[in-house]
Each structure stands twice: as C-alpha cells, then as structure tokens.
C-alpha cells in the first residue's frame, strides 16, 4: 500500500544554486499497513517553468497584436499565397495546436 504526496518547492544545491523541484513523496507500507520507509523523488522543473513563462508571454503578445489589428492581418507566405487572419475566425485545431488561417 502506498500513499503519494506531490508538491513543488525551491531547493538549494550543494553549490548554493537554487532550483524549482517537483517532489513526489511516497510512504511505502507492507501488507499490514506498517511503514517500511519513505521514497522521495525530486525532479528539476526549472526549464519547464521558464518555457511555460515564455509561452505565456508569446500568447499575450499574439493577443495584443490581434486586438490591435482592426479587421485582420494580411500577409504573403513563402509560397506567395495570400493569407488573411481575421479576429472572428480565431479557433484552435486541437490536433495541431495551431491558429487556423484562411489561405
């Protein structure tokens, strides 16, 4: 029988460097329910949190651009196709997670 507890905390390495760690604590018990020990796994998630922050910033920038675009954004891609992105046509392709545009 196992009991899990997950949390995120800032840890310090031996050299003093700080990092964000996702921690999973598991109490390991025998069949009678007696505690045999504690298993703790700490995973450095600093890069993941920094990337999530960058993505959120880019999403805010994208939203600012779309909000200030008026009727839409017009452009030409590398294949010389005309593209129009209109605010009212913002929808997400859940499979590709890309903004759909009208060629």
Overview of this protein structure:
This protein is α+β, with helices and mostly antiparallel strands. The protein has one helix at 46-67, and strands spanning 2-12, 18-29, 35-44, 73-76, 82-85. The strands form two sheets. The chain has a three-stranded antiparallel beta sheet with strand order 1-2-3, covered by helices on one side. Strands 4-5 form a two-stranded antiparallel sheet. The protein starts with a strand and ends in an 18-residue tail after the last strand. Mean pLDDT is 78; it is low at 89-103.
Cα separation of the termini = 57 Å
Round the mean pLDDT to the nearest integer and report it.
78
Structure summary, number of beta strands: 5
Q: What are the segments in which pLDDT stays under 50 over at least 5 consecutive residues?
A: 89-103
What is the radius of gyration? 24 Å
